[in-house]
Amino acid sequence: MAAIHFISGLPRSGSTLLAALLRQNPRFSAGMSGPLAGLFGALLHEMSARNEFSVFIDDAKRERVLHGLFESFYADSPADVIFDTSRAWCGWMPAVARLFPESKVIACVRDLPWVVDSIERLIQKNVFSPSSIFNFSAGGTVYTRANGVVGQDGMVGAPYDMLKQACYGAQRDRLLLVQYETLTTAPSRVMNAIYDFIDEPYFPHDFDNVDYDVTEFDERAGTPGLHTVHGQVRAVPRETVLPPDLFNRFVNDAFWRDPANIPADLRVV
Question: In this model, does residue 244 exceed pLDDT 80?
Fold first, then answer.
């Protein structure tokens, strides 16, 4: 099987952009968030004690089945190195370490107010297309939507908790945090750090012509533009669409920016 690594972290934080850059390397396979993490969790669930036949399934069998899931899913991939993307992988770090001892996890992060702003901006842009993010429900306000996504089980809240668990967990030596702000202002620095992190020879990427588009998926999700990347990698300054009180609620949540609050050996670029 090809070498496998994982892209995880927060939503709206550059994972699709990063995948679009990585896939420029002909040896690499990368893309938007896929179904593998969900299948992984479902298999674990079905092999647990809730299954009356679990008496016939020990941990060795579980490990072989889960490893086989990856082998089967990527059996037709010609890539030498595969990056599977899901916000859930930060929550599966101990299992990933057991299954793939050489694998690494790249977690994309971004200041929380701008993550929430990015989601709200998409919702307001696609005003006539209710989004799967909110179960295709129309209406609500910027406050109800923000509260929904940052909740414990929300689109932002759950990955944020998984990210924290990974950053302070025993497997943090296989974790690299990539800040959206660095990726969009110094992409060469980020890519060099990633190649060094995964111990692969560097490939010269084209930061002026990046392209990735899954229009059909985004339209079916009721959120056109959710995974679209075109053109040059660059930071685009803008005003927030969040009211000041809502924006300020999240300004201190970027724990990875404070050296006093993170382990000294946690890698951040």
Answer: yes
Say if residues 160 and 91 touch (Cβ distance below 8 Å): no
Residue whose C-alpha is closest to residue 137's, from 125, 147, 116, 123: 123
Nearest to 21 by CA among 11, 10, 31, 34: 31
Phi, psi of 230 (to 5 degrees): -140, 145
Burial status of residue 136 (CB atoms within 10 A of its CB: 0-12, 13-18, 19 or more) = exposed
Cα–Cα distance measured from residue 12 to residue 32, given in angstroms and rounded to the nearest whole number: 11
HSE value, Cβ hemisphere, 13 Å, CA-based, for 119: 28
Give the pLDDT band of residue 226 (cuts 50, 70, 90): very low
The length of the chain is 269
For the stretch 167-212, pLDDT in tens is 999 999 999 999 999 999 999 999 999 999 999 999 999 999 887 6
Mean residue pLDDT of the chain comes to 88
* Cβ-proximal residues to 167 (8 Å cutoff; 6+ apart), any chain: 107, 175, 177, 255, 256, 262, 263, 266
Contact 86, 15 (CB under 8 A): no
